[in-house]
Amino acid sequence: MLPVIIRVKLQGKLPFNYQYEVILVTNFPTLFTPLVLGPLTLKNRMLSAPMGTHNNTAEGYLSSEGIAFYERLAKGGVAVVCLGETLVHSATGNNHGRVFRLDDPGSLPSLIKCTDAIHRYNALASIELLHPGRRADPLYNAEGKVYGPSAGSCHYGDGSHEVTELTEELIDVIVNAFGDAAEMAQIGGCDFVTVHGGHGWLLGQFLAPNNNWRTDRFGGSIENRARIFVMVAENIRKKCGPDFPIDFRISGDDFTEGGATLEDAIQLAKILEDKIDMLHVSATSFHNRRASMRMFPSMFYPRGVNAYLAEEIKKHVNIPVVTVGAFNDPTHMEQLLSEKKVDAIAMGRALLADPLLPEKARTGREDDIMYCTRCNTCISVGFVPYVKYNLGVSHCAVNPWHGLEEKQFYGKVPRGNQKVLVAGGGPAGMEAALGAAEGGHRVILCEKEDSLGGALRYAWHPEFKKDIKRFVEVLGRRIERSERIDVRLNTAVTPELVREIAPDALIVAIGAKPIELNIPGVDDPRVIRSIDIHREDFQIGDKVVIIGGGMVGCEEGIDLAKSHGKEVTILEMQERLAGDAPYVHYIAILNEIEQLDNLKVELNHTCTAISNKGVICKDREDREKVFPADTIIMAVGMRGLRDEAESFRGLAPTVIPVGDCVKPSQMAPAILSGYFAGYNLQRF
Predict the structure, then answer these.
(1) Which of the four pLDDT bands, split at 50, 70 and 90, describes residue 17?
(2) Cα–Cα dist 552/640, whole Å
(3) Do β-strands 124-130 and 485-488 pair in parallel, antiparallel, or remain unpaired?
(4) Looking at 167-176, 402-411, 662-671, which range is the least confident one?
(5) With helix as H, strand as E and coil as C, how does 469-531 read?
(6) For residue 385, cis peptide bond before it (omega within 30 degrees of 0)
(7) Where are the alpha helices (DSSP H) in 256-376?
């Protein structure tokens, strides 16, 4: 794609009726056309979706790490950085404990430091205001009371709690709290606010009939159910003035029985249009325990799955409409914008995977954008109350610096000049080579196969996992462009080779191999390992039995049933499927399996033998059962090549095993251990 030079004239709704031209050189002209938002001008059409940090202080204030996180987003080139999940009235609406709150003036110093950091990169700052309503945690609310539009009970995680119906007096208190919070945000340097009226938080609960069965002026008709939205907008406008834009985040559809529909969202948008400046359209409601798989679209959904909701709402209003939902590709975003289906794109996980995505797109380096693989490791660690503990630390499977923004910003870049040999060209080895090269070292990367990627070459074949191939390709391009890395394919690292090269440091990333079941009949020609099922020389039969219901077995089973029409049975000896999957991905896996009539699951079944009749199992009561199969796939896990890795000890001054050869796991631990093994090599 050749760069396009465009001229954009901006006028109207600008201070002092100022008019000017912007000359822009880009591969994505619409994506980088400025957007007018009330009295403001956004420099492009890419926004960071509201995202909270995992490391607020005990008081709920932004920590220096949290500020660095938002500063990193601004540096990456987005037009707007939106601080996520900010409470407006902690006494009646607190959902997580250490959530940033704007009903406490003590939050202002950290907020001002944060907005100053965002503004240093010519980005605008917004902040998401919310009240959880019936989704609050009784543990954190005053007197343990939880409030909602209507009384009753509400699930919170695997439990439930009683909900007290809001009185009109308390509704007024909360409405005023939204206005006061917006005023605090304005004082704290925010350029506008994003009011959360979706996802089943309090305002969205008023809109949804399955949460609101009031008979007063806040219930019944769409005008009544939308009344609190209007009151909040008017209260903010009164306190912050006409030149402080108001953005409302809504769900285009709750996708729950009895919830708010697209038609409700359209009517709400029309009611709000002349009172606000922008609409941010997401989807679903936490009323559904599995809302996360579409709220943060899982890998089983197409990119931009919710864009059609924003597109439909945009037809009915004349203010900017933003869409959100697993966008990665600037070409995809450009198409939606150029066809005028939406006005802007918000991104969350994509910016965790590659905070520089906007700047790379702007400067013609889109082939270096690292796509989010939607493994949902980042979200799952803090997805309370569905996970028992909020770990407070988030990792990304494709970005080793995620969560380390403060160290990356302010840490001294280590430099050295060692000769580094990396054994193994899988994800850990590739990252190790890049980390060492970034630190100034000379690297020889050896891979015994004829291409890089390691075990990931077996994982990217299902359509829903194609972003893993992109990950390997981007790392490959970075390695190819590095003058410090010498790649040697078809080269196994042996003790003799180590002695010949005589490296100062040896990083061992030789991976793992499949665990073999020691049961009768395992040598049957119908049996194949999970890493081999995509071989061109192997034909998979119509009736498939997968031994092992971990994440790999489930994903391959879904692919075979959904994309290839196979009759699949997954056998798992434990009482839970996909026990190794991050929680949000686990929920998506269960949902996919439940929708496939040709995929069956048998839990608590231990395989004892393979016969000509099929796979023989025993259940917990020691009852035997046979599962007929044309193809039998072994997916019972991997064993790290630890002994082989340890055999290299003493062959170089520094020897560091990394990745699966230390402990087989998911991508994130492998890339973290690999990258920082190279990056942090000792220097004297």
Answers:
(1) very low
(2) 16
(3) unpaired
(4) 402-411
(5) HHHHHHHHHHHHHCCCEEEECCCCCCHHHHHHHCCCEEEECCCEEECCCCCCCCCCCCEEEHH
(6) yes
(7) 262-272, 292-295, 307-314, 330-338, 349-353, 357-362
Q: Which two tokens stand for residue 11?
A: 């006028």
C-alpha 463: how far from chain center: 18
pLDDT at 16: 42
State phi, psi for 106 to the nearest 5 degrees. Answer: -65, -15
User: pLDDT tier at 3 (50, 70, 90 boundaries)?
Assistant: low
**Of 247, 322, 311, 312, residue with least CA distance to 281:** 322
Using a 10 angstrom Cβ sphere, with 0-12 exposed, 13-18 middle and 19 or more buried, the burial of residue 210 is: middle
Contacts of 143 (CB under 8 A, 6+ apart): none
Give the tokens for residue 57.
């202080």
3-class DSSP assignment, residue 241: coil
Q: Say how far apart CA 225 and CA 229 lie, in whole Å.
A: 8
51 vs 415 pLDDT, higher one: 51
Grouping H, G, I as helix, E, B as strand and the rest as coil, residue 325 is coil
Closest CA to 585 of 431, 413, 397: 397
For 73-158, strand residue ranges (E) read 80-87, 100-101, 124-130, 147-148, 152-156
Q: Which two tokens stand for residue 114?
A: 């944060």
Q: By the 8 A CB rule, do 296 and 383 touch?
A: no
Which residue in this structure is represented by tokens 């890049």?
Answer: 434
Determine the Cα–Cα distance for residues 175 and 181; give it in Å rounded to an integer: 10
Q: How far apart are CA 372 and CA 34, in angstroms?
A: 26
Tell me the HSE value of 198 on the side-chain side, using a 13 A CA sphere.
Answer: 27
Please identify which residue in the block is written with the tokens 């001008």. Answer: 41
Tell me the domains of the chain and their CATH numbers.
Answer: 4-372 (3.20.20.70), 413-514+640-679 (3.40.50.720), 527-636 (3.50.50.60)
Tokens encoding 510? 């030789």
Eight-class DSSP state of 54: S
pLDDT in tens, 62-87: 999 999 999 999 999 999 999 999 99
The 3-state DSSP class for residue 144 equals helix
Yes or no: say if 196 and 346 are a contact pair by the CB < 8 Å rule.
no
Residue 340's Cβ-side half-sphere holds a number of Cα atoms within 13 Å equal to: 3
Could you give the CA distance from residue 505 to residue 682 in angstroms, rounded to a whole number? 10
Q: What are the structure tokens assigned to 312, written together?
A: 């439909």
Specify the DSSP element, H or E, that contains 348.
none
Angstrom distance (rounded) from CA 678 to CA 539: 41
Residue 53 tokens, joined: 């940090």
